Amino acid sequence: MTDFPNHDRHSAPAAALPSFDAAERNFGMIPNLARKMATAPALLEAYLQVGALFDTTSLTPQERQVVLLTVSRENSCGYCMGAHSVLADMSKVPEAVTAAIREDGAIPDPRLAALNRFTRVLVQQRGWVPEEALQAFLDAGFDRQQVLEVVLGVGMKTLSNYTNHIAGTTLDEAFAHRAWEPPNA
């Protein structure tokens, strides 16, 4: 695998520095993901902007974390599973829900379980969601706007999951206590 640098403020392209500032404001640090993405400043900027837009959706903070964890689980992204497990804790996602996603188990909350199922199908089927899966999501109390908001979350996480796979991003110390390894690792 090609070696991608873990940029800092001195090695990063100048175009990435405003995104470093934004990441530091958001997270209190510059995560390793941002350091890897800085190699392509447009990618880092897009990721942060899509994340900010995802935060404005009608999905609750807990629901957004369920989407992001589910996508990361489906894509076997250890970095994002670790990071978003911490963010899920901060967003008050019940530990039983986070554990179920991490372990591919049953989610005890019916609404969050429906969101997890829909997100999984969306990723697995590459957007070709069967009508019955879409209807089950709607029957769980979600609406068509939220269908497309989940698509936004999938797009956001795909950017980071794929970057981490290609760049071999190591988990930051701040997330290490929630490290996760894919079952096929």
TrEMBL record:
Name used for this protein in its record: Alkylhydroperoxidase AhpD family core domain-containing protein
GO MF term set: peroxidase activity
Organism the protein comes from: Thiocapsa roseopersicina
Membrane-spanning ranges: none
Keyword set includes Cytoplasm: no
UniProt key word tRNA-binding: no
Keyword entries, A-Z: Oxidoreductase, Peroxidase
Record-linked InterPro entries: AhpD-like (IPR029032)
